Amino acid sequence: MLREGIFITGTDTGVGKTQVTAGLAALLQRLGEQGAAQREAAQGEAAHSEAYVRLWKPVQSGAALGLPTADSYRLLHGSGLAMREADIASHTFAAPVAPWLAARAAGAPLQFRDLVADGKRRLQQSGCLLVEGAGGLLVPLAEGKRMADLAAELSLPLLIIARTGLGTVNHTLLTVAYARQAGLEVLGVILNDSQSGSFELSRLPEAVQMAKDNAQMIEQFGDVPVLGILPWMAEDEHADAAGWAAWREQWTAEIESSVHLNVFYDLKNRRQRQ
Ligand SMILES: Nc1ncnc2c1ncn2[C@@H]1O[C@H](COP(=O)(O)OP(=O)(O)OP(=O)(O)O)[C@@H](O)[C@H]1O
Ligand SMILES: C[C@H](N)[C@@H](CCCCCC(=O)O)NC(=O)O
Ligand SMILES: [Mg+2]
Fold it and tell me: Which domains does the chain have, with CATH numbers?
């Protein structure tokens, strides 16, 4: 059974939360469908589709619904989930700044209790809710509230996305330390090459070695699992449906071969749905 929900945060904005979340959603949904099809074939029943994964971006800033650069758009097309873009993002603001500020600039301040109620309602629906924050854990979200407060209020464990290169060790250890101080469970870290600028560059032996060394230091000094290291693999925001499907296939294959997925499953505490 997948966990009820996971909060995907990052060591910074632009580290690849959206890209990794979209790929994870596509992969976990496919694995859920494959498992169900196998069980149903074994029981001689017809296969039926179910939502094993759902996506939520509580607040996006620097975006407009329907624009290919919006996180909601990239989450939808990158995952291929059967959701509507407007259902993925609860609030969308134009200003490319922290949600608290973007909402104020739009004259529509965010109410933390409404965000929590929205999250609780979504968690009650079937499937694992993958929640993408904006920026990192301490980004201002609502009056007196930061991104970490939403994860804490919803009792969601964290997945931390971080860069692969120099500087990531400090940023990641700071994020882990703050999360634990705030009482948040950290499932693990994924190092994602969001900066190389070319597929080949990320395969350079020195870059690969640095990512591996960084992963080791993060595990040793942060006492936290690094679940995988993902290479540079650019999306094409302007792709058509077939283009997105082809990208998903490549990106999910990369995630499946590079990331330990065990921590996303909870065999003990979940109610049985099948
Ligand atoms: N593995 C990767 N290969 C190539 N490009 C990547 C990769 N990961 C991320 N990118 C690109 O880097 C940019 C930043 O990534 P992304 O938007 O996913 O970051 P984010 O952490 O979600 O940021 P935000 O805080 O704005 O939500 C995007 O243009 C994205 O397509
Ligand atoms: C505009 C960015 N892309 C992002 C908000 C990042 C806020 C970062 C604030 C900070 O840490 O200085 N918005 C979002 O993820 O919807
Ligand atoms: Mg994002």
Answer: 5-264 (3.40.50.300)
